[in-house]
């Protein structure tokens, strides 16, 4: 069954729906039908897209939610000046990631994602929904009308005054690609239903919610209507869902005054504090915290600036138990400390809370754990007699302290003692940072019962050192490829993964550079990409989809040995190796235009 729709360009793209005729040839036509194939004329469509290598999300429907025609059709097209890029997108020559939301009252909302070439037509089948009625009244029993605070927020989840969220990913709507397969979106944080998408007002204080018929698990209602009540939430029970009616009485809001004590020693360096409020019952649940931060309308931390604005006053906070968090910062980004405290907001009353940093006591993190740190050069030789430093890092508070420093022994090892381990079942908030020759090289976390006795750290090859030989699998031929076999040519070695977002930008930049300079590099330079994906099965389809499969020797690191040999701690990471097999450059691939960099080295210019 074909599923869906849309288009991205470098300028605004207009959609012509409601039966209007588009200019000569549409980019794609959507046909919205019910399970019996009948048109759904009251459906609405919202489409956005991002071109590969671009950062801007473009709205493709204008207005953002476009009604379909009486025949259930929506035609999305570009202006004549977009024809060249539109044709490239339709044919899959320009990589595009497109998102389309479709909603019709009484049907399960649909979210469609697509990458690659577009079909000229797509049919989307909407499934019937379970209808639940929300009846929302104020503390004085008056019906509540919820509206977007600003016109530009209309139709967007983040600005909705009312949302329905689910603790399970992708449980509130149908998420598919054009082939009907689950997409990457279904593995990320769930998007909520919001006003205009799964939720609609049908009367005074009465809202209709379209839910999946087979919905399981806990759903939450969130209401965030400034000047009425902010941060209200409640779980909706299975009994209420079965009855089809949910009665909601909003409590009288609380007035809260928050201050930060900047006078204690731990806070004197700070110039401001950023405050965030999270329901206390969500404090130890990462998924609920993430949902709350994104969709409660309170996900942006509010600043307190000392001494100009020492207080934060909230006059419309929902009563209940809250966790107040404060990030104390100096300058623009540097964290001085982090504080957490419980706040109990009374219904219809007032409360004041002063947040004070706790003294940093290193002795509290002195444990009984010991392990050996072993440091090797690229290629496996021990890094003998090199200076090292290990710091305890309380990353939630922005606090660090040196717990060991000195010189590695002749075997490149040192024994670390009195280390702190996080109790089982607790999220770690302490890790250790390892510096070699005053450069941060690695970090590690210890958890009770993890059995870790040794940390092995392989440093990346330094400039001028021989590049370690590696053996990887050529994804085109299925045969082994060694670096040694390329000796006599320049080699640009790129470690990446399909799931790494920055890597996609890097791959597009490499493709663009080879398109421009490939003739000049032919016979002198080999570009080798090394995928660290868990399976090779996903790599070549991903490359073909984006048109990246031809410009390089694409390989797979079957057991992670190549990444280990080069001390790769994160992707993307790249190395440039000269014809003698020595490393002449290493680092982040986007630190400089890759074409400019390679031309400079190949022409014998600057080595930096």
Concise overview:
The protein is mainly beta. The protein has an eight-stranded mixed β-sheet. It has a seven-stranded mixed β-sheet with strand order 34-33-37-36-35-38-39.
Question: Can you offer a commentary on this structure?
Answer:
With 608 residues, the chain is mainly beta. Helices cover 11% and strands 39% of the residues. It contains 7 helices and 39 strands. It has an 8-stranded mixed β-sheet with strand order 17-16-11-13-14-15-10-18. It has a 7-stranded mixed β-sheet with strand order 34-33-37-36-35-38-39. Strands 3, 4, 5, 7, 8 and 12 form a 6-stranded mixed β-sheet that branches. The radius of gyration is 28 Å and the shape is flat.
Keywords:
608 residues; mainly beta; Immunoglobulin-like; 7-stranded mixed β-sheet; 39% strand; disordered N terminus
Helix content bin? 10-25%
**Integer count of domains:** 5
According to CATH, the fold-level topology of the largest domain is Glutaredoxin
Read across the widest sheet, the strand sequence of neighbours is 17-16-11-13-14-15-10-18
CATH architecture call of the largest domain: 3-Layer(aba) Sandwich
CATH class of the largest domain: Alpha Beta
Class by SSE composition: mainly beta
